[in-house]
Amino acid sequence: MIRDYRVQSEFCSDRISFKTLDGTFRHLIETGANCSPFVSSAILNTAKKVYRLQEADKEHAMRPGQMKIVGVAAHELSGKRISECQLRECVVTVYADNEDNQIRARHGITGLRRAKLLRIATEAWEQGVLLSHEDFAYRILHCGLRTIARDIKYFKDQKIYIPTRGQQMDIGPGTSHKVLAVEQMIQRKDEYEISKRIYHSLGAIERYTTTFARVVLLKEKGVSLEEIAFVVQHSQRLVREYLDLYQRYKDQPAYQERLDEIIGKARNIDHLTLSSVSGEKKERS
To answer: What are the residue boundaries of the structural domains of the chain, listed by start?
Structure first.
């Protein structure tokens, strides 16, 4: 049987999906309960929300698809010899299961590589590490240095600065792609266009938006920045950027309705966490 490229790609994607934890869980549910893929997907998503499986401690528990890599500490100035720099370990996600499969199906090999470059560089940066172009070319993505340079230029043209050692001077507050995605959601930009611009899945964009809303709600409850970072399992830097983003838009009437909509969804979903954190603060006081 002769398969065209699209059919072959879908066939390979289906085979790969079985090799993930999500795929294994769904297969067991579908065969054991004789239910449809739609139902098994709904059960999986519910289980993740109830047990907060998306919020596992990234520093201490590596998931399938993750790897440890050593890079230069983010505080080291550019131009300094590598042999004189402090090095640190970080955990990065090289393969993100079905999320990467969706990105490849929608944006192809180039889109997947760019999504990985953005994700891995950001994960390392949030752990205090700046990876170099050579790290990506020879140790992580296994491609040419020119390819990495082209990908970084693509994002720079989109006003997204990849946090690598070579881009150190351009890194500043508010440049995270996660913040950019949420900001465009606040501006009611089309989700598919946002996804195409930053080479991310729709699920990832929804996750960034939900985290942003949780950060705002926790801040309104009087929770400190350090405690918010612990609850949402993200860096204090990202929490601070989300709060800065909220401050920029909260007093603008044109965006008030949209902010209420985004934060309202999180309030309905996350009321148990918010209540427990509030209760702990009252007990301490």
So the answer is: 66-166, 177-284
